[in-house]
Amino acid sequence: MLFTVVSISTARAQSTIGVAAVVNDAPISVVDLVERIKLVAASSNIPMNTQRSQEMAPQILQQLINEKLQLQEAERRGFDVTDADIDRAKNLIEQNSGLPPGGLDQFLAQNGIATETIRNQIRPQIAWQKLLGSMRREIQISDTEIDDNLERIRSNQGKPRNNVQEIFLPVDNPQDETKVYQNAREVVRALEQGANFGGLARQFSASSSAANGGNLGWLYSGEMAGELQQAVNQMQPGDVSDPIRTIRGYYILKLLDRRRGDANALTDVRLDLYQLFVPIAANTPQDEVNTKLGILQNAKENADSCQSLANVAVDLGSEMSGKTEGISPNDLAGPVRNAVANLDKGGISDLIKVDGGALLVMVCDKTEESTLPDRENIRERLEMERLEILARRKLRELRRNAFIDIRM
């Protein structure tokens, strides 16, 4: 791979071998570029060959240029990045990747990547986040905006929820349209050939979700931009979209999972239940059946707690009786779900006949929590969206005012 990238530089810039680009008098070396290509390949599980490295080199070089601009601006504004900052970020990467302490350095060594490569990637990311943090006070989210978001989510409550990952490639200049689209297509091709979505998101996505592998979590219908929601609605779990053009740039989405909608599910109900079961075989004489049903009826009339039912179960030696905690009504068998649907804490069902016997169910405890995101979560999401817009605007300004000399 080293000779592949060096050959590109040699062919295009004979007089500047060793320097891939200069950003405001600060060089980006060919070695920097080669090491980053190796890091991208290893972390994203991209099968790298000569053609792939040639195709990805310009995109990765552009990322290095952006990082150089971000670091320069942050340093100019007085935001420093300490070794402790970088070490904390490395620890977080290890936790998110399921690596043990020190596992990241081991991973780099196993793939022939210099440890400094990951530190050089982390440093501008932290510096830029510190700078953006100082811009957060410029963002104001009104209560009306939060109310509108909540109302949109409520109105879509009956529609499916989707667990989505994203990779976002911004188009900040109309002249970059073709280049960004080609980059997006290259990312999709890499994914089709087995590349890891989260790894590519961490390396290439310009969204704040990049740090989490592009994970957006479970989204209600209406929480995504219209073009993105329309694309997700047509996908099945496991699908990866083609590049989707929005007003901001190109998105690549992966649908991880989908949950069916429930128009009545504005709350998440959890039940602690006690089931008193009496076995009744198919050939049991009717008088014995009546006796066993009478035991259940007596328990229904006299039990004042789940412990009372438990005591009856002990007396009967009923091994199939017992307590279930934290279960959703949706996970209960149909007859049981219907029997407890309108019961509050301490309520007890009518007799329920099932295969092999009959039972009673008492609600030991019942909790209800809103499934809607709280107002603070919505505020934070809206702030993050505005902050991303400010960040792209700032980076566009830095590129416009910078001296950038690409030498390959």
TrEMBL record:
Keyword Flavoprotein: no
Taxonomic superkingdom: Bacteria
Keywords (A to Z) from UniProt: Chaperone, Isomerase, Periplasm, Rotamase, Signal
Residue ranges constituting the PpiC domain according to the UniProt record: 159-257
Entry keyword Signal: yes
Cited InterPro entries: OMP_Chaperone_SurA, PPIase_dom_sf, PPIase_PpiC, PPIase_PpiC_CS, SurA_N, Trigger_fact/SurA_dom_sf
GO molecular function, one term: peptidyl-prolyl cis-trans isomerase activity
Protein name: Parvulin-like PPIase
Source organism: Thalassospira xiamenensis
Lineage, opening ranks: Bacteria, Pseudomonadati, Pseudomonadota, Alphaproteobacteria, Rhodospirillales
